[in-house]
Amino acid sequence: MSNKALKILGQEIKPGQSASLEMEVAKLHTRNSLRIPVIIERAKEDGPVLLCMGGVHGDEMNGVAIVRDIIRKKYNKPIKGTIICIPVFNVFGYLNQQREFPDGRDLNRMFPGSADGSLASQFAHAFTKEIAPKVDYVLDFHTGGAERSNYPNARCALNDAKLLHLAKVFGAPFIVNSTYIPKSIRELFHKMGKTILLFEGGKSLELNDEVVKCGVEGAYNVMKYLGMHEGVASAENEPVIVTKSKWIRAQHSGIFETRIQNGTWVKHKTVIGRISDPFGDFERRVLAPRDCYVFGLNTTSIVNKGDAIFHISMETQE
After folding, report:
1. Structural domains of the chain, with CATH
2. Are 87 and 68 in contact (CB under 8 A)?
3. Backbone angle region of 219, left / alpha / beta, with phi > 0 → left and psi within -120 to 50 → alpha
4. How far is the C-alpha of 160 from the C-alpha of 144, rounded, in Å?
5. Is the pTM of this model over 0.90?
6. Is 299 exposed, middle or buried (0-12, 13-18, 19+ CB in 10 A)?
7. Cis peptide bond upstream of 112, omega within 30
8. What are the pLDDT digits (tens) for 31-90?
């Protein structure tokens, strides 16, 4: 997309200009407006438009911190093209430290939204109309939810060669095959013909320095690959590509303890956790069902039968 004529939220951003705009989320009953900052940096030279966004779910702190550090390190100031940063997308959830919008909806299941729908749907509609059409590439930063911690990974549809290549450029330890969830922001951009890469790392309501570092370096790699910064993209290791995965579920209720580190390769029948009762009457080991990587785990101390406890690879490829 050419950014020779770039107009966002009613304001034209000319070559070499910066802008800190605000997108209105809602009018409050106190007569105040709730708005989200949209930070735009445009280079003098024409090029792609990249959107970096965090906080689609309001309790996912790592995504917010990643976009913050992209701005703090001035990586959002390109030598070519335009970089748009939205550190806190779901400002309602962020203020309340909750995943959802005040109407109880998951914002990431509301796209493209409706001008006459729920509060979350109206916001999704405004974003779909005002910002989404302006961008070429999107980096969407997330964490695990419901006490689940994700080892840093990039998620994409592996049958999309261009997107898979971009995921490799990003350089997260794992690349996980992920289909497009209906009404998600990923599906929205995919249907619009845009390239969106989703990053997962850590868990909700918790900051993890290593996860934030991985996300920031990955974004910088993508920027260099797109020619928005000088240099060559580089990653510490070749990513593990997970073509098929599943969650191991608890077979018993009780006190849950992990016996491995997240991101670990384990052999078949390795003890990866245990579940016991508070009275010392029983203890059950959780065994790896196959040789696999563990790249997501439940961090809660108490689980119920059927709870997802370990996310493992079923198939991988070099």
Report:
1. 6-225 (3.40.630.10), 245-312 (2.40.50.100)
2. yes
3. alpha
4. 24
5. yes
6. middle
7. yes
8. 878 899 999 999 999 999 999 999 999 999 999 999 999 999 999 999 999 999 999 999
Q: Beta-carbon neighbour count of residue 160 at 10 Å? A: 13
For 100-154, the pLDDT digits (tens) are 988 889 999 999 999 999 989 999 999 999 999 999 999 999 999 889 999 999 9
* Closest of 84, 24, 26 to residue 53, by C-alpha: 84
Cβ contacts of residue 100 below 8 Å, gap of 6+? Answer: 57, 58, 93, 106, 107, 120
User: What is the distance between the alpha carbons of residues 58 and 179, in angstroms, rounded to a whole number?
Assistant: 23
Residue pair 288/274 in contact by the 8 Å Cβ criterion:
no
Is 295 in a helix, a strand, or coil? strand
pLDDT at 318: 66
Going 235 to 238 to 244 to 249, the CA torsion angle's sign is negative
Provide the token pair at 80.
């070519």
What is the separation of C-alpha 140 from the centre of its chain, rounded to a whole number of angstroms? Answer: 4
First to last CA, the chain: 33
> DSSP states of 226-269 as a string?
TTSSSS----SSPPEEEEEEEEEE-SS-EEEEE-S-TT-EE-TT
Structure tokens of 45? 């030279």
CB contact set of 258 (below 8 Å; sequence gap of 6+)? 272, 273, 297
3-class DSSP state for residue 132?
helix
